[in-house]
Amino acid sequence: MHVSRFTHVTHKRRAGWFGRKRASMLGVVAATGATSLALIAGAWMFAGPARAATNLLSNPGFESAALSPWTCDAGTGSVTTTPVHSGSYSLAGAATSSDDAQCTQTVAVQPNTGYTLSGYVEGAYVYLGAIGYTENWTPSATTWQQLSTTFTTGATTTSITVYVHGWYAQGTYHADDLSLIATGSGSGSTPPPSPSASPSPSKTTTATPTPTPSSSASASASASPSPSASSTSSSGTTVDVSTGSQLSQALKSVVPGETIRLAAGTYSGQYNATISGTAGSPITLTGPSTAVITGSSVDSAYGVHLQASYWILRGFSVTTFQKGVVVDGGAHDTIDGLTVYDIGDEAIHLRAFSSNDIVENCHVHDTGKYQAGYGEGIYIGSAQSNWGTYSGGQPDTSNNDVVQNNTLGPNITAENIDIKEGTTGGLVQGNSFDATGEAGANSAVAWVDVKGNGYQVNGNTGVNAYQQGILVEQLYTGFGCGNTFKGNTLDLGSAPGYGFDIKDQTACTSNPNVVYASNNVTGGAGASTIPITPGG
């Protein structure tokens, strides 16, 4: 048996589809103590009980005449002497038709603390934000314009990544005098609303790039009474439902801040959500695992079709549909603790520019019952062949999505996680993979297939490998690069492949994939097809 011990913080790129919608899809990947990130320590100063206005960003005005410690998409970032907002230098980001010229910096922060991120920008479609939280943007700044956004860190957050970027084919933007200031104790992990001046629009149904498979769910009891508003809390009204017709009605009339609570029982039919929450008032659909949304066949319909932003789906089960949960064009949605099983194709799919979403604590098993080759557990983005359907012919930039602490398998017939070309900057951590039942159809041979850029794949475990462990491919020019792997424990057993099968890296010379020595691979043909990097 081959035993080897042997992952780099990546930047992200968020996007929407230009000219059709400008949905806010920004974020800040929050790192906990269990996730090792490169931290830029911020100084903390205190005046009495409140923190002084200390800028936590290093080199905020680029007065060092260099980018460091900012990290920019390869070949897009530089320091310039004109124009400047103050001082002698500013950042120039050269956005191209295939790159939005994003620059990021990871900063140490305190949990449960409010922050204000601000800066001055010039250019067309310039964005400033924090991965996993909020952003602000301007469609056109012909002179220096200040952008500002606020957020509150979560209970275990110890670092965040801030970013600034332009937009595809919109030319060079400039940024200067960026700052991240602690504003005091926050209320917890839920981000507060974006500033009212923020031009980031909420997701609307007219921007959805894919048609709804059918109308709202069929009622399990057409004569059932209306859902009841049973309680009110500081976060909004809780609406209790116990039938399919009540659930359909609640989804049609829901407002930001509201919670729809499912009673235990069966909810027959597919359910569509098209009304968005807000950063400060997300919409929640929750229920126990014994609240089961069920279809009639694995060859048709979506169980839950979410076409909106700032939603939390929590706790319930989804079964017997062609696709389990599909998010189209949704930003800042959380899928937490669902059980998704007996699905015809893929179980959970984030596509059509669905960015800054989180899939966590879910159990997915028994997929591909209709088409084995499309039976992925969790699927991010769209294959190039489907861009004409879901992203207007452009890359489906479903960016900065987080997949963490999920139990995947057994009997997932394709990859446990499939990350498509065109996507950037996600985090895959703390998941348990089981390839028992992987069919090898449609070239599915690994627990995880990474075809995007800049993903962090950390602290996952894998058993019962089919052929490979984690596969990295370059299927579209410029993608399949800059991914990092650390702290994963992979047991290949008698599988013939490698723990990390990194394909042709000739296109990734300036942004290589990195496999760190902190990974632990047993069995198979070996640890990695590329040299192992110390550390991690």
How would you portray this structure in words?
With 536 residues, the protein is mainly beta. It folds into two domains: 27-185, Galactose-binding domain-like (Jelly Rolls, Sandwich), CATH 2.60.120; 205-216 and 229-533, Single-stranded right-handed beta-helix, Pectin lyase-like (Pectate Lyase C-like). The protein contains two helices and 46 strands. The strands form six sheets. A 13-stranded mixed beta sheet has the order 14-15-16-19-22-25-28-31-34-37-40-43-46, covered by helices on one side. An eleven-stranded mixed beta sheet has the order 1-44-41-38-35-32-29-26-23-20-17, with no helix packed on it. A ten-stranded parallel beta sheet has the order 18-21-24-27-30-33-36-39-42-45. The longest helix has 10 residues, at 244-253. It is globular, with a radius of gyration of 23 Å. It starts with a strand and ends with a strand.
Rg over alpha carbons? 23 Å
The tally of helices reads: 2
CATH architecture of the largest domain, by name, is 3 Solenoid
Largest sheet: 13 strands, mixed
Total number of strands:
46
- CATH-assigned homologous superfamily of the largest domain: Single-stranded right-handed beta-helix, Pectin lyase-like
Question: What does the average pLDDT come to?
Answer: 83
* CATH class categorisation of the largest domain: Mainly Beta
Uncertain residue ranges? 1-51, 187-225, 229-235
User: What's the CATH topology name of the largest domain?
Assistant: Pectate Lyase C-like
Q: How many domain units?
A: 2
Using the alpha-carbon principal axes, give the shape: globular
Compute the separation of the termini in Å: 24 Å
- In terms of DSSP E residues, the strand content is 35-45%
The largest sheet has its strands arranged as 14-15-16-19-22-25-28-31-34-37-40-43-46
Secondary structure class reads mainly beta
Proportion of residues in helical segments: under 10%
